Amino acid sequence: MKKNKGLVLEGGGFRGMYTCGVIDVFMENHIDFDQVVGVSAGAAFGCNIKSRQIGRALRYNKRFCRDPRYSGLKSFIKTGDLYNKEFAYGIVPTILDPFDTKTFKENPIRFTLVCTDIHTGKPIYHEIENGDATDIEWIRASASIPIVSKPVKLDGYELLDGGVSDSIPVNWMLERSSKTVVVLTRDKSYRKKPMKYINLLKKAFKEYPKLQKALENRHIVYNETLDRIEQLEREGRIFVIRPSKPIACAMIEKDPNHLQEIYDVGRKDALNYLNDLKEYL
30: burial class by Cβ within 10 Å (0-12, 13-18, 19+)? Predict the structure, then answer.
């Protein structure tokens, strides 16, 4: 096994503001990793650890969360995507709050994201290196929630949210790192329940039976992963940072103050874990 440090970032929509708080504390305290893997929001917000942009994800989400150009029913009706491709993944990262592609490209951290192949129902692990428009499209694919997003076509794949197939890719990272840190967006008491609208999802994806199965079994796989994480944590093989209290937010969060609150919980928890984390690493 390579002697390097790996970081796993779970998704979870705007609960990802918790992750932003955690990784900003990492950057402020010069806690570095050799490899990062992010899923959905873990990719969309977590990529800022490679571009070293402290506070950026919180800043632009607070600024634009109420902006109908960013996300909402209007975008969904017009484009089929709840989060607007042209604005959220185009204008924001290139003009209004620029993503530092130069630093991203020069930073030696390897950043991998997870998408779900809608034909196989299996995860696709893809490394992004440049922070350019193609990489941003991969990030968009990783965060494309079924039903409220159209599949993203890239490199011969049709892709949706990586959380469908591998919500917390701890096993993937364990094969590549000797020290693994996992940032979750659910508190320790949480266990996922069967999806309420699974019949609607199955109907929507009737042409993709393997994706249907992945969606139907998602809660089982997710809870098994949580059990494994707790076992690995007890054995001292991984270090886990998770919310100290339950975090709830809407799929489209319109309250910037609530985003700040979630971020602040992440910062507080990361600071509380800091000394133990340094010792582990």
Answer: exposed
Longest Cα pair distance anywhere in the chain, in angstroms? Answer: 51
| Interacting residues of 11 by C-beta distance below 8 A, sequence separation 6+ | 38, 39, 40, 41, 42, 43, 142, 143, 161, 162, 163, 167, 185
Query: What is the predicted pLDDT for the residue at 3?
Result: 74
In order of 18, 174, 179, 228, 262, the CA distances from 232 in angstroms are 22, 10, 12, 6, 26
2 pLDDT above the threshold of 70: no
The answer to whether 10 and 19 have CB atoms below 8 angstroms apart is yes
Structure tokens at 182: 């996992």
Four-CA torsion 162, 164, 168, 174, nearest 10 degrees: -70
**Contacts of 279 by beta carbon, 8 Å cutoff, 6+ apart:** none
| Alpha-carbon span 132 to 152, nearest angstrom | 16
pLDDT above 80: residue 8: yes
pLDDT, mean of residues 167-193: 97
pLDDT at position 1? 44
Which tens digits make up the pLDDT trace of 249-278?
Answer: 988 999 999 999 999 999 999 999 999 999
CB of 10 closer than 8 Å to CB of 22: no
DSSP string, 36-68: EEEETHHHHTTTHHHHT-TTHHHHHHHHHTT-T
| Cβ count within 10 A of residue 68 | 12
Question: Is the pTM above the cut of 0.85?
Answer: yes
